[in-house]
Amino acid sequence: MNQVDPITRRPLELDRAAAPPSTVLIRGARLLDPRPGLDATTDLLIRDGLVAELGDDLAAPEGAEVVGAEGLHAFPAFVDPHVHLRTPGREDEEDLDSGTRAAAAGGFCAILAQPNTDPVVDSAPVLRSLRERARAQARIPTGFMAAITVGQRGGQLTEMAELADAGAIGFTDDGLPVRSAGVMRQALQYQRLAGRLLALHEEDPSLSGEGVMHEGPVSALLGLAGIPSVSESTMIARDCDLAAYEGGRIHIQHLSACGSLQIVELAKQAGVQVTCEATPHHLVLTDEAVRTLDTNFKMNPPLRGEADRQALVDALRSGVIDCVATDHAPHAREEKEQPFELAPMGVTGLETAFAALHTELVLPGLLDLGLLVERMTAGGEPFGLAAPRIEVGAPANVCLVDLDAEWEVGEAGYESRSANCAFAGRRLTGRVRMTIAAGGVAYRERTFALGAVA
Amino acid sequence: MKRHLLSVDDLTRDDIERILGRAASFAEVSGREIKKVPTLRGRTVINLFYESSTRTSSSFELAAKRLSADLVSIKSSGSAVDKGESLKDTVQTLSAYDPAAIVIRSPHAGAAALVAGWTRASVVNAGDGKHEHPTQALLDLYTLKRRAGSLEGLRVWIVGDVLHSRVARSGILAFSRMGCEVTVCGPPTLIPRGIETLGCEVRTTLDDLGQADVVYALRMQNERMTGSFVPSLREYAAQYQIDGRRLGPNQLLMHPGPVNRGVELAAEVIDSPQALIVEQVESGVVVRMAVLYELLAGRGAPSGVPAEATTEPQPA
Q1: Domain containing B259: what range?
Q2: How many structural domains comprise chain B?
Q3: What is the C-alpha to C-alpha distance for residues B111 and B41, in angstroms, rounded to an integer?
């Protein structure tokens, strides 16, 4: 992958544990990669970690693993720009090994970890120690974001230039908004020196207050404090204006509301350098799900109304939403086994992202399969990470998916250390069988029978 | 009837009619000198209260005692709850005593439903956060029916802080289920967005209060005054207080208690013959007896044979 900062043009690096480059011959899968216009049912040879050849009846090199993939689809593997790995601090909820295993099981070949850990990733030493741990434990390339403000307290900017030098892929105070417009403006000004995209959790705390779910008829019924959609859209409007004024580059995280989309669309038309992401749970579920008070439907931003959801799907199709992000947010079981108002916000989603969107959007004909693949592989682009491609000479980032496989989420447990999945118990169609990330096999489904080795 | 009473939504109109009828027959018991029947002898009822409460907890206690149940009352202070025990662990511990019913009051919405997933006992929601308070709604129906004769077609105005009121939410559901026409009225800052989807009208002034057959005033909590929900107590009282000028001679007045005299209600209406406030308190005991009876009495005699424990949390 071509990896340079979009502003300073300096190189970006992801980290993973050393893995030998694989030589794999995938036989008979339907290869689908919309970027180079690839759609063919043929063989795919990966040699020494690179895409070596596409074509019918390819010969297996000596020592190659041969995968009989007739009936399966091979896509460029996915990129998730928004994952919480809970390390350091809450390794009981997720660690670099389990989190990257969950990602690989979901077909991802690269993820970006958020800095709202304990301690917060707001200094170069913390970032360096994380990167070092990733080089020992991460099963797929993992990038680390650093905080915009010290301790994510919204006051003082972090040493962004040093953090960028130390390898931060981007900056975010995710989990919290940058409350002060003045601080946001300074971060945008400083971006001219430090580079790196500013990824923003958009929420006006004076509007979201004590809210625990979307404000609407369901919150009225349940007597739960609501988070109005304007708490998101007004902050997005503020930050789009600031980005335009300072010529900065921003990425809106987990956008959830129809009004927010209208603002982003206008900003894009006006030439503001803004990109945005949406999560599978916001694209599939609504606040109706919260009626059960199941804490696996509690996250921030909250599940919105049906009109919001439909607007998100339209925007994913049109490209106003640039990419899918999971906002994978593991939480301990005892923390989620509490009354809704007390339970922490966040749901896991790496292992279900593709299957949920395939089942709920592609199968009913709302979204083209190729377009879904495009949006699920685009998550690194705003940060300067090129999307994976199935092209001769490219590093092998491929996931093999059985689009007909039906499964029940959580039935066989999770690769993640946490089980707070928004799709738990749902039947989904489409299962990742194998993931090759940066040239190495990162995941193989346990039941996936491999072809004979030639 | 379902095994638990978690929400007014758990009750059909028939269920409600039956509970109200049962309550009326218990009213006869309450008139006796010995106010006790042996119905629930040998059964255990646990009152688990995570919020301070006078009316609800004492009336549940009296209800259980008058049905001859063994009663354990637990308040959050001075119990393991104080020591940081989780709700789940507390409930599983108490369930080991094999209670027939757990009555729970919690500051958090959905707590009763969670408890129902962790115990074999029947669970009664005695108030969960700002969500619901179904036995309050039942006693309101009972009280109103005794005075008005029939509930069908009555126009009920619920006035005050609807946003923070579980009484309002259960009331809207219960009154409309019994054929009343419900209107909620209060400051726009204290009316939750989307409340009309529960089947009520929304007003922000008392201009048309004259349409109401029943005026149900909600408690205005002092702590709401500190935020900017209403600019001042004075302005709230000026706009929304039910007083002798606003309450017509043929209108009935209800209030869940405790009343803030001079805030939501003027003294002259509290003590007027139109007020049902004392009857509401009286009804609390017999209605809660009826609820415990409905949930427990039909459910077979207590047996010494332990059934298998349910530990799976209930998704719903």
Answers
A1: 134-280
A2: 2
A3: 28
Contact between A416 and A98 (Cβ < 8 Å): yes
Q: Which residues touch B145 (CB under 8 Å, ≥6 apart)? A: B20, B151
8 Å CB contact of A217 and B197? yes
Helix B277-292, helix B55-66: angle, nearest 10:
50
Task: Please name every residue paired with B122 in a beta bridge, in sequence order, or none if there are none.
Answer: B101
Rounded distance between C-alpha atoms, residue A27 and residue A58, angstroms: 8
Does the domain spanning A75-387 belong to CATH 3.20.20.140?
Answer: yes
Both B172 and B213 in a single domain?
yes
Q: Are A333 and A326 in contact (CB under 8 A)?
A: no
CA distance A114 to A147: 8
Residues of chain B positioned with their CB less than 8 A from the CB of A223: 109, 129-132, 164-166, 169, 192
Which among B6, B87, B106, B131 is the top mutation candidate for probing chain A, defined by the most A β-carbons within 10 Å of its own β-carbon?
A: B131
What pLDDT digit, counting tens, does each position of A396-407 carry?
A: 999 999 999 999
Q: Rounded to whole angstroms, how far apart are CA atoms B26 and B67?
A: 10
Q: Collect all residues of chain B within an 8 Å Cβ-Cβ radius of residue A339.
A: 87, 106, 108-111, 114, 128-129
Would you say B198 and B137 are in contact if contact means Cβ atoms under 8 Å apart?
Answer: no
Same domain, residue pair B25 and B146: no
Same structural domain, B270 and B292: no
Q: DSSP letter at B295?
A: I
Question: Is B189 in the A-facing interface, judged by CB distances under 8 Å?
Answer: no
Residues B16 and B87 in one domain: yes
| Cβ-proximal residues to B281 (8 Å cutoff; 6+ apart), any chain | B55, B59, B257
What is chain B's percent helix, strand, coil content, to nearest 5? 40, 15, 45
Q: Which of A311-320, B25-34, B139-148, B175-184 has the lowest mean pLDDT?
A: B25-34
Chain B residues in contact with A228 by the CB 8 A cut-off are 193
Do B36 and B142 lie in a common domain?
no
Pick from A298, A337, A421 the residue to mutate for testing the B interface (most B CBs within 10 Å): A337
CB A404 within 8 A of CB A425: no
Pick from A402, A155, A227: nearest CA to B192: A227
CATH code where residue B155 lies: 3.40.50.1370
Of A216, A334, A341, nearest to B109 by CB-CB distance is A341
Residues of A classed as catalytic: 327
Are B69 and B128 part of one and the same domain? yes
pTM of the complete model beyond 0.90? yes
B146 and B258 belong to one structural domain = yes
Cβ count near A210 (within 10 Å) = 10
B43 and B104, same domain (yes or no): yes
Query: Is A216 within 8 Å of B193 when comparing Cβ atoms?
Result: yes
Whether B192 has its CB under 8 Å from any CB of chain A: the answer is yes
The SS3 call for residue A280 is helix
DSSP-derived 3-state class of residue B126: strand
Surface-to-core class of residue A135, CB atoms within 10 Å of its CB (0-12 exposed, 13-18 middle, 19+ buried): middle
Residue-wise pLDDT tens digits, A328-375:
999 999 999 999 999 999 999 999 999 999 999 999 999 999 999 999
